[in-house]
Amino acid sequence: MSDGRSRLVVLNGANLDLLGERPAVHYGTITLPALERLVSDEAERLGWDCICLQTNHEGVYIDRVHEYRHEAALLVNPGAWTHYSYAIRDALELVSCPIAEVHLSNISAREEWRRISVISPVVSFTVSGKGPEGYLEAVRRLIVLAGV
Ligand code: DQA
Q1: Which of 55, 58, 75, 103 to mutate to test ligand 1, by most ligand atoms within 8 A of the CB atom?
Q2: CA spacing 20 to 30 A to 36: which of 19, 42, 94, 103?
């Protein structure tokens, strides 16, 4: 918490720093700074604080999940780790607040290996294939779920 306001923590994972250069057919053309600005503005519009972090290092991602596990809400897009990282799955299991899993692309309509999310069983809900709007939908749903 800061200034008495609830805080949303947004954790983007591997390769999401290069949004804007990645295949537009899946991820559109938005850059990570622009996406983070959109998400922060939506959270702030609803009276929440928001911090956005990105890393390409799985261990650092896990450290951030540990660090923020008792915030008011987490929004996670672990990138490709979604599909195989039981370590991130186990870290998310320790989180005490609502968690949204968000993917810009529709992972259930892509390659076979992307259709599996090992984190889905431990999150509150998943939004996939709605681009940046999916992040905004997740912010709104998290704030309702957090109920603070
Ligand atoms: C992604 C989907 C993943 O399969 C991929 O590895 C990503 C991004 C998405 O936002 O659509 O890096 O999580």
Answers
A1: 103
A2: 94
The domain spans of the chain are 7-146
For the question of residue 26 being annotated catalytic, the response is no
> Domain 7-146 is classified in which CATH homologous superfamily?
Dehydroquinase, class II (3.40.50.9100)
Active-site pick, 61, 68, 103, 135 = 103
What SS3 string covers 43-110?
HHHCCCEEEEEECCCHHHHHHHHHHCCCCCEEEEECHHHHHCCHHHHHHHCCCCCCEEEEECCCHHHC
- The verdict on whether 27 is a catalytic residue reads yes
Please name the residue whose Cα sits nearest to atom 7 of ligand 1: 79
Q: Which tens digits make up the pLDDT trace of 58-109?
A: 999 999 999 999 999 999 999 999 999 999 999 999 999 999 999 999 999 9
pLDDT tens digits along 29-47: 999 999 999 999 999 999 9
